[in-house]
Amino acid sequence: MIYFIVNITARTGKSRAIWMEMKEILENRSIEYKAFQTRYAGHATNLARKISSLPEDRIYLITVGGDGTLNEVINGITDFSRIVLGILPIGSGNDFARGMGISKDTLSNLEQMLDLIESASEGTAIDLGEVSCEALDTPKYFAISSGAGLDAIVCKKALHSRLKKFLNQLHLGKLTYLLLTIESLFSMTTCDADIVFNHGEAMHVSHMIFSAGMNLRIEGGGVPMAPDAVPDDGMLCLAMAHDVPKWLTFFLLPFLVAGKQKYIRVFDCIPFKECTLHLSSPLTVHADGEYCGENTTITYKCLPGKLHFLKIS
Ligand SMILES: Nc1ncnc2c1ncn2[C@@H]1O[C@H](COP(=O)(O)OP(=O)(O)OP(=O)(O)O)[C@@H](O)[C@H]1O
Known about the structure:
By secondary structure, the chain is an alpha+beta fold. The protein has helices at 15-28, 43-52, 67-74, 95-99, 106-118, 150-159, 162-169, 173-187, 246-257; strands at residues 2-6, 33-37, 59-65, 83-89, 124-133, 140-142, 145-149, 191-197, 202-208, 210-214, 236-241, 267-272, 274-287, 290-309. Helix 1 links the parallel strand 1 (2-6) and strand 2. The longest helix is centred in the middle third of the chain and has 15 residues, at 173-187. The site of adenosine-5'-triphosphate has 21 residues, from helix 3. Pfam families: DAGK_cat (PF00781), YegS_C (PF19279).
């Protein structure tokens, strides 16, 4: 039995037609499956919790949706040792799929995934991140990244953005992030941060614009915030911009978008297993683009090999 959690509202509702085509493939291949459609924000977490409590030794769970749905699913899984997770990206950003090298051809992805399941694949172990901060009751998992500051403000605005809906209709969803980044950069307040790493190092930064714990190399619609981050090395990467006036950051952003930040002093990319940031004033925090409130103390932690993942290309 294969379980599907499907968000047909992803990509502003354009996903329904793709899901119908997927169902045809499942029926043609006589696959035994159960599909659950999400009916409200947060529903995917409840569904994943129920599915992961089923008394089966190995549970194949496939997420059909965008990065938000994936984040909800991993935060519902109660026993990662029995779940093998597949991702069929049909959202607007799909950073997880991009970061994992999954193609945009959803139907071929599904066929590949079914082949893996038929060969009783155990999946490939990849790391997850975990973020703790005062606005969250319990720590939250992330598969792509969790950030504070500019990237989080942009994610928060994008969640309810009419601009995103409009640009999605024109297949220009990525442009939402660029426009919101420019607008937010000039309206946001920066802060100072004391950062303590579990390997014993500590540092102080001023005028911090963003700091993100990256599991994958990209976030925000494909921006390579941490060009060297890989999801199976037992480490996260702290991507930061600091000690720079906001107007200058505006001119330096193209280097970030091109993945050339190592040549620019104001950007950092520091590998770590666990670190805590103490901020001088609260910043917005996100996990995989999901809003995690306003916070002054943020801890990022790597959970090595936590997720068994159906790797397709
Ligand atoms: N039936 C529903 N009605 C309203 N919102 C929903 C429903 N199902 C899921 N959601 C919410 O929709 C949000 C966005 O979905 P998702 O991330 O899958 O798509 P997306 O935003 O198009 O893609 P991406 O995050 O990759 O840009 C999720 O965070 C989830 O909380």
